[in-house]
Design goal:
142 residues
Length: 142
């Protein structure tokens, strides 16, 4: 069962929004994780590599900092099925390229900019996420 955490969720949302605004104001860039991570891959954009590396380091460091500060382990359920994880990773990567952005780029920044394309993309991936959760929780015919 999933635990409802309104305070942590609100604080997380505020930090995500603040970081998106700061990135747009400072560098004129959309805060989409797929775009930021792609700057780490060749050919790396001029000046984009260091920022992308700092971002990814922050993604890795954040849960470690939470554990250090709170003493509470961060629980993240990830499948142990390697084939499923590879397929999921490929589908997410394909979807990010095909959709010209990821959930954070479209859902946070695109909707804030009133982009119709981002609204449609967000509605599609939220619907698919809801269907996926339903199928995973209720099984497929069994």
């Amino acid at each position: 069962m999933t635990t409802f955490t309104p305070v942590a969720s609100l604080l997380g949302g505020l930090l995500i929004g603040l970081s998106a605004v700061l990135l747009m104001a400072a560098q004129g860039r959309i805060a989409g994780i797929s775009g930021i991570v792609s700057r780490l891959l060749p050919p790396a954009e001029r000046g984009g590599f260091a920022g992308g590396l700092a971002f990814v380091a922050g993604l890795v460091a954040a849960p470690l900092i939470v554990v250090a500060v709170t003493g509470t382990p961060v629980v993240q359920a990830v499948s142990g099925n390697l084939a499923l994880m590879v397929a999921a990773g490929l589908l997410v990567g394909f979807g990010s390229v095909w959709g010209s952005g990821c959930t954070s780029g479209h859902g946070v920044c695109g909707i804030a900019r009133l982009s119709p394309r981002s609204l449609v993309a967000t509605l599609v991936f939220m619907a698919v996420a809801g269907i996926t959760v339903f199928v995973m929780r209720h099984g497929m015919g069994g």
